[in-house]
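Chain A, query sequence.
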Amino acid sequence: METKKTLFSKKSETYMCCFNSHCPRHADCLRWEVGQYFNPQTYGARCISPVYEKAADGTCEFFRDRQPLQMPLGMTGFYYDMPAHTARYIKNSLIQKYGRTTYYEYHRGDRPITPAFRQDVETFCQEAGWTQPLRFDSETEDYVW
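Chain A, predicted structure.
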């Protein structure tokens, strides 16, 4: 398991960071925290502009909560109890919305299932008429990047 420092240092190279210390929500923001691990010898970064107006009033849509969440991981046994047409509808709907690669990353457990993805799964299950409890492979604690 990587330490927080190692994880955030690596993430700071590609993740959109924030360096706006005047934002009223910066103390709770994952983007701000990752930005604190940014290598100062690097000349460029993918970041939110420090003068972005919505950051100043606390309504920044790029805000990410810095607290990790318990999230499901993997969907390999997800469809076993479903009728084939229901499983096909849910799978095709998720692939259409997220793309084949991203869907299979969630399906195999390569990425934790975010609250937004889970909400879409639940919505597509309801649309297909599936009311049974959802069965994911396991759970993990991770950040909602």
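Residues 25 and 59 are 9 Å apart (CA to CA). The first helix runs from residue 4 to 11.
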